[in-house]
């Protein structure tokens, strides 16, 4: 495998890591960059190329686990009720995450084949990017006018709110809509700060993305050949490193800039791709 081919893996890892958790749709960017420009299917084959995208997604997931490692450990606190080590303050629990995962998890399993066969194209991604942008703008405008207490931290999220955010996350089953864009918007509409909604989005993304990735890898294990391993490894490492950087940057930025700038970027991207591609 030559240097140019490995460079393609690094570029795709960068695209995945830089966009997976920003509200701009990593799936949309991957389809645009890979299917239109790099065309990894030409040298990996269709199914091996799809498996590669799962591998680099695992790199992004690992970055979230590293950044939120203390939070994940805290959610696994099994100290008995009333224990001196057990805090009486409200805290995000594993049950909140499970409740938030249920809607998209069930619909994802039911419609997985239909989505894979019919919705992964430039046309559908552009539709998802545009509609998701409108939803983000509406969320920012409506959220700024919402009265009542503000949820400053994920520890203030109720199970009911977690479930509603999970329902909104179902919109992201349409490629291009963006998981983080939809869930952060849903959280803002419920009265969360952008940072609290982003934290919950990232934490909730780990189990659902990890589960989907592992299932995909089990089904496509035969594509992990010796020839493909350097390409897969380079992409994984690249996605992990760039996801670490982009997540930390995004979390510092999101309360200041909110969602509208990302929505504007998405609309501009739709227009540019439409002109170039069509």
From TrEMBL:
Transmembrane segments: 47-68, 94-114, 120-139, 200-218, 224-247, 259-277
Keywords: Antibiotic resistance, Cell membrane, Cell shape, Cell wall biogenesis/degradation, Hydrolase, Membrane, Peptidoglycan synthesis, Transmembrane, Transmembrane helix
GO MF annotation terms: undecaprenyl-diphosphatase activity
Annotated localization: Cell membrane
Main location (coarse class): membrane
Topological category with respect to the lipid bilayer: Multi-pass membrane protein
Reactions mediated catalytically: di-trans,octa-cis-undecaprenyl diphosphate + H2O = di-trans,octa-cis-undecaprenyl phosphate + phosphate + H(+)
Keyword Hydrolase in annotation: yes
Keyword Metal-binding: no
Primary enzyme class: hydrolase
Pfam families, per database record: BacA
EC numbers, comma separated: 3.6.1.27
Role played: Catalyzes the dephosphorylation of undecaprenyl diphosphate (UPP). Confers resistance to bacitracin.
PANTHER family the record matches: UNDECAPRENYL-DIPHOSPHATASE
Family statement: Belongs to the UppP family.
Miscellaneous: Bacitracin is thought to be involved in the inhibition of peptidoglycan synthesis by sequestering undecaprenyl diphosphate, thereby reducing the pool of lipid carrier available.
Name this protein carries in UniProt: Undecaprenyl-diphosphatase
Organism: Rossellomorea oryzaecorticis
